[in-house]
Design goal:
Blueprint lengths: L2 H28 L1 H12 L3 H23 L4 H18 L1 H11 L5 H16 L4 H21 L12 H6 L1
Helix pairs in contact: 1-2, 1-5, 1-6, 2-5, 2-7, 3-4, 3-7, 4-7, 5-6
Length: about 170
């Protein structure tokens, strides 16, 4: 194996180690209520989230496959695929927060997110199993948690109030 190939894979792994926890910290800072709902969904179990996450996966694969067959739509297919992956990995912020909360219960929420996210990403760095199984599994679980979080009520039953509408 050439040195350039090894360096390429090393830099790709390093990009995941930096980018995913940074994405989750961004979500924690920008949408704390959303991450709290995702964290609650992650605490309720992941099997249901997995099966629900298969629906956006199938729809995304179908949509990207159709777009890539159309002439001059390859860039749109890549953009749609990238947005779907980002949406899935954003949903996994709840899982990273839940792992951080369980492992470091006395830390601040952003610190729990950072450490839980690094733990999750480091598990995905396992050769072959992490790359082929865990990383896609994190995205699928993220899609499922995103969809399940739509149906969680906010504390105090304040859904639909003008204060929430003004915040949006």
């Amino acid at each position: 194996m050439l040195f350039s190939t090894v360096l390429t894979w090393l830099l790709i792994a390093l990009a995941f180690v930096i980018a995913l926890p940074a994405l989750w910290l961004f979500a924690q800072g920008f949408w704390p209520e959303k991450v709290a709902r995702l964290q609650e969904v992650a605490g309720r179990g992941l099997l249901k989230s997995f099966f629900i996450g298969l629906v956006p996966l199938a729809g995304g694969i179908f949509f990207v496959a159709v777009l890539s067959k159309l002439p001059q739509m390859g860039a749109v297919a890549v953009l749609v695929g990238g947005l779907l992956l980002t949406w899935g990995f954003l949903g996994a912020a709840g899982m990273a927060a839940r792992v951080g909360e369980r492992l470091w219960p006395r830390a601040e929420p952003w610190c729990q997110m950072k450490q839980g996210g690094l733990t999750l990403v480091c598990c995905a760095l396992l050769p072959v199993v992490g790359w082929v199984v865990l990383l896609p599994l994190i995205a699928i679980l993220g899609w499922g948690m995103e969809v399940r979080s739509w149906f969680i009520r906010q504390p105090g039953g304040q859904e639909g109030t003008t204060e929430n509408a003004a915040r949006l």
